[in-house]
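Lay summary

Proteins are chains of building blocks that fold into shapes. Our project writes down both the chain and a compact code for its shape. Here are two examples, one after the other.
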Amino acid sequence: MKKPSFFNRSEMARALWGFRKEFLLVGALSFLANLLMLGPTLYMLQIFDRVLSSQSELTLLAVSLITLLLFVALALSEWLRSRLLVRASLRFDRQLSTRVFNGSFRAYLGQFGQSASNKSRPFSDLNQIRQFLTGPGVFALFDAPWTPIYIAVIFFLHPWLGILALGFALVQAALAWFGQRQTVAPAEEVLKASGETMGDLQGKLRNIEVLESMGMIANLQKRWNRQHAACMDKGAMAQGFINRVAGWSKFIRYSQQSLALGAGALLVIDGQLTPGAMIAANVLMSRALAPIDQLVGTWRGFVSCRSAFQRLERLLDEYPQQEHVPSRAAPTGAISLQGVFAGAAGRPAPILKNISFAVSAGTVVAVLGPSGSGKSTLAKVMVGIWGASSGAVLLDGDPISDWNRLELGPHIGYLPQDVELFGGTIAENIARLGEVDSRKVLEAASSAGMHETILRFPKGYDTPIGDAGSLLSGGQKQRIGLARAIYGDPSLIVLDEPNANLDDAGEAALVIAIRQLKAKGKTVFLVTHRQGAISVADRLMVLRDGVLAADGPRDAVLASLRRPQPAVRTVALVQSA
């Protein structure tokens, strides 16, 4: 049987379609629950129109017992459908959580400038959908189809009461539709403004020492106050409109209860209706309009859930499930770039322009260039975390994008310019948050010249480093990052300014580590400006304005750059190195 095209349009919709049996069962239980909700109405009809007139205690007992059994069945059906939705929501979360994690990770990989709130937005969206699936809004959606059935029963009791109920239902539905049309855009603006405000503040607070030392707290507070006030104004306007819609909804509901009772009393006076039917019609009318009233009350949650669903839908469609990549032999470290153009997200002009070179395994390459020349971008492209907009990056002759990242990761070592460590112990960070291999951790720390320093910490390798390595100095963080990069003897190591925070002893340890890697036949790319690090390189590359200005054996390139013929800015570059 061919599935409806609606459910074929996205991975999120297909995931919901996979729970159709649970939703059908919830619908069946909702049918039973709403059918049993007629029990109180029938009970009142029997009390007013039969028991009171007959004065029969036996009839009262029988009717009460039957109604009690109906209430037990009603409570059981309500409990079962709630339990089904809770279990379905948990399965929905387990089914999509890994995909959302991978999709958000890939989306954020090349967008380092987005706010902190946006980093966790997909997980908040998934949690919001899961919570909505177990909230009152879903029950209102399942109960809403019973509104016309209840109104039909009211028509059966008396046509004028049915017309009154239909009129109130139409007014409530129109109010819900109008509220939806008017609250979607403001609610989205409030969420966006709130996320931007908190993200901006969290980003600033990461540099709290700078703010405090230079007296920037007051300026930050003024800036945050302006953003927060604008966000609060938008929120107040949106909430004010929602409250007005809710107020009108309450007015209509209370008016309906009184007018229905008054209209029923008039019909009783005229002899067109019994007192029991009057009370029953009033209860049925309240029950008929309850789902609509619930929809008005939960509409904001529904709008937020729909927006979250659409955001996750776009995320998963843009970053689909990656196909299984066959395993390959461990790379030797030979790497080549062929006509590579690459840039950063949100920057139209490329940073790297037509970069081509080939480096054999076991070569140490030093990369020079002024700030903004594209050195860090080149490092990210070589390890595959920034894709090339055109051209090819080949590792052992195969595109690096075709490698299985989980299998390739242990064979790649990367030390970024801004060293990022993670909460945990020193050993866990060196071991790349995986299972700690004590021998490999000791080898990596010793190669980075960090072993003796680590032993002086209170708990040695088991010392917690705090959030993002906050308990370490800049040089210690950089050397632990270096140990992490060379952990497990990777084949290709890319070090971006690894000696920026190192003292003379640290730089000497770095040179020794590079020589050891070279002796093991590892390919090392070293982005640096210091002469001591350049001395261990076999090959030298010079980047200028994203173009490979010079490339060749170290001594030959240095000699050519020191001649008087090249441009002054190139000579100045080498002298600064």
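And here is the second example, written the same way.
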Amino acid sequence: MKISHIKVENFLGIQRVDVELVSPITVFAGPNGAGKSCFQNAIRSALTGFMPRIDKKKEAKQLVKDGAKKGSAEVTINGEKSTIEVPSLKGVHGSVFDNPAISYVINPASFAGASADERRTSLFEITGVNPDTNNIKERMEQRGCDMKLAAYVIPLLRSGFPEAHKEAKDKASEARGAWKSVTGETYGSQKAEGWERECPAAVDEDRLEQMENRMAVVLHEVGEKGRKIGGLQGLKLQAQDEQAIVSKLQEIADQYETIHTQYLAAHKRSSKCASDLNTLKRKVMTGDDLTILECPHCQGKVAHVSDSLVAYQDPADVDPAVLAEYEELKQEAERAYELANELSLELDRSKRAQDELSNRPRIEVVTDEQIAALDAEASALMEEHDLLHEDLKAARAEKLEYELAVNANRRAAESHELVKAWSEIADALAPDGIPSEILGEAIKPINDRLKVSAAGTEWMTPRIHADMSITADGRLYHLLSESEQWRVDVLIAEAFSHVSGLKFLVIDRFDVLHPSLRSSLINWLADIAGSGQIDSAIVLGTLKKPTATIEGVMSSFWIEGGVLTTQKQEQQAA
């Protein structure tokens, strides 16, 4: 992709740069603080939307050059313009905006400054190696992973390998914890293989069933004995109650003759007293029991006595002795009558007792011997029950211990298998597993290009490793000198540009190179430009004077005070 025009106004330290790029290589040089890095930042902002030197959008006004109200940057690539305005941050992004390599070809040092995960993701995107789910599943199946378990973590791949890898490791850790909870021991892969708890002999199920059946029979018989004993004790109590009732009835019945004789005597006495009282009434002609009438002929008073009428004698005329005798006899007659009635009732009660005795049903007599015999039988059954209970308790405990051991061995084996299965999945998803395989496919075209470029520049050969470390001729990146790191950054940026198809570079700070090495950079860029491997290369650096131009290959511009020298002269002339 050819960069044909760059226009920057009032952006950071740049006042105005408006330049047509007619050569594949364009060098922008100038003294320190002239605005070269600002120029590079303006290009980067126009192509990527990245805002340098600010953290928040509200700080965007600081990107405008002092004294101006707004600024802008515009880069034309293959006839397509990408722009950015400050402080509004509005702009138009060309198609290069979506290219994953754009940030690195404009700012070569940014790849080494990225995290391992960011480097890995960028390599996948730049090389077009797609670690899609189906591809990963096929690789996991080839490794022999348990795909039923893998189904739980595969959806997490949408968030990247680290999330899925962490989940698989957590599952393996859970399985190790489950193994420890079963065994009581710390998990070890060799220890867990074939681990078994000491298992007692299996219980004779037939014998256990016979014991349980006999226990059921004994419990039933004990219950029956208990019910029978309860029945006999109830009958015994009933018989005792009946005996008390019969004894009482017999006592009352036995009094019949005595009461009968007493009754006859009382009745006789009552009758005599009544007769004597009736006779005496005629003498006293008084008493509350007399009926006093008036004679219809002479109007004299008469009394009704024993169905006959006699002349009524006033009580005042009666002999007091006869009247006293009458009152005494009257009271005796009343007592004789009441006694006869009481004895009549007692006689009826005694008769009823006799009748009830003759009609009362017989009650079965229960002896203590009968109850004692049943108690002995029940005790014998309970002794058998206690022995059976102890035997059953021991047999069931043995059975439980056996089952627990068998179950523990099964669960331990299952947990161990889960540990192995999840560990295999975790290993497959680990950085040095499938990601490394896929990453190797992504890294290869980059490392191949780095070999070619290192040979063309005669610089150290950079290499990106599966763990995302960077080396040059085997030395780690952070151990390199500043100049060596710069060269590694440039070669990596060019490799990204080449593989992604961008075919352009923006390189700042080339003054970090020793003068003897600067020519190797320009010669290499000229070679790959001449062979069509790169369309545009912009090189910026701090120099004491402008570089020479190479007709048709390299153009050179001098930046000072935020403008190109020729543009500055034109402004001064105007």
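What can we say about the second shape? The chain is about 55% helix and 15% strand.
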